[in-house]
Amino acid sequence: DERGMRYRDIAIISADLDEYKSIIRDTFSDYDIPCFIDENEDIANNPYIEGLKISLEIALKGSRGFNKDNIERLMQTGVTKLTNEEVYYLRNYLAETDSYRYNYFIKGFTRVPKYLWINDKDMNKRALKVLLSHVNEIRVKLITPLLPMINAVKDKDYKKIIEEIYNYTVALSYQQRLDECAEAYKDTDVFKYSLWSRIYPSIISLLDKLYMLLKDYDSITGDELLDIFTEGLNEITIGSTPSTFDQVMVGDLFRTRLDNIKVLFMIGLNDTALPNNASSSNLLSDRDRNAFKATS
Predict the structure, then answer these.
(1) Would you state the pLDDT for residue 202?
(2) How distant is the alpha carbon of residue 246 from its chain centre?
(3) CB-CB contact of 13 with 263 (8 Å)
């Protein structure tokens, strides 16, 4: 404007950003005002993160990891390379035969579904042969990427386990598939594009940190590694990044850092939101207290 103000000179902060960000985003869009909303996204429930956690639970817990809940959850996430038809076929077979245990997935499915029995003594052997052949092909497709992790756990080699977690993401084309998800938002949603683009690098960063953290361990159990890695995945948050330099900054009162702001708007402040937690931080620093003592 005539005073030389730019969008980047203006900021809006709130003690409850989640409550207002959608309203701000829609309103600013209506008036063609560029804004950057400084928001963090918890990715713990992202299907690729969830699929990785379940895969690790299956692999790192050995026989205890193979159960109905884990196998069903893994197929539901969609991270495996099974087609929808294969998932449907395998789920029906497992439900009919209760073949969720470790030995069945490692050695092969052999149990006969009830519907193949013609009577109490005879069964349709030809149909059984076709069914078992097909369902075991699906089993191999599902279990093969998990086997290197399972074998590394048996050796209690943490370095090899971490390498195999990485190899598992490669085998399932994690980076390519996440990049494809990101591309779907490239022209429509800057935040979601940034979010999906940064999930895989966040996983790799966590693996690097885990390697450094555990380098002095002589050995580690699968359960211990699972707890550490799962906690790390649950703690990952991805922040948004500005798409242009000249934008109104919209941020959180307690987290967002503001520099060189000329106009500041504060919204949603009330006696329940501010102060956030009086007992969690001190209003005066030690330096302030000493200064007050000196003048008293």
Answers:
(1) 92
(2) 31
(3) no
What pLDDT is attached to residue 114?
77
Instruction: Please list the rounded mean pLDDT of every run of 10 residues in the chain (296 residues).
Output: 79 88 90 86 85 92 92 94 94 93 94 71 75 94 94 81 93 95 87 87 92 74 83 80 79 84 87 56 50 49
131 strand-pairing partners = none
The predicted structure's pLDDT at residue 233: 87
For tokens 């963090």, the residue is 40
Look up residue 270 and give its DSSP letter.
Answer: -
Query: In 3-state terms, the chain is what percent helix, strand and coil (to 5)?
Result: 60, 10, 35
Alpha-carbon distance of 45 to 238, in angstroms, equals: 13
Q: Which residue has the tokens 């990785």?
A: 52
Return the pLDDT at 283.
43
- Write down the pLDDT at residue 148: 93
Tell me the C-alpha distance between 183 and 177, whole Å: 10
CB atoms inside a 10 Å sphere around CB 52 = 23
Integer CA distances (angstroms), 71 to 98, 106, 150, 206, in order: 11, 14, 15, 25
For every residue of 113-127, DSSP letters joined together read PGGGBSSSS-B-HHH
Reference 210, options 194, 195, 226, 223; nearest CA is: 226
CA-CA distance, 221 to 208, in Å (whole number)?
19
* Chain centre distance of CA 224: 20
Asked if 292 and 286 count as a contact pair (C-beta separation under 8 A), the reply is no
What are the structure tokens assigned to 58, written together?
């299956």
Pairing of the two strands 10-14 and 263-267: parallel
Give the residues across from 267 on adjacent strands: 14
d(CA 133, CA 111): 12
Q: Backbone dihedral region of 156: left (phi > 0), alpha (psi from -120 to 50 degrees) or beta?
A: left
Which pair of structure tokens corresponds to residue 119?
């009577």
Asked if 250 and 12 count as a contact pair (C-beta separation under 8 A), the reply is yes
The kind and range of the H/E element at 181 are helix 174-183
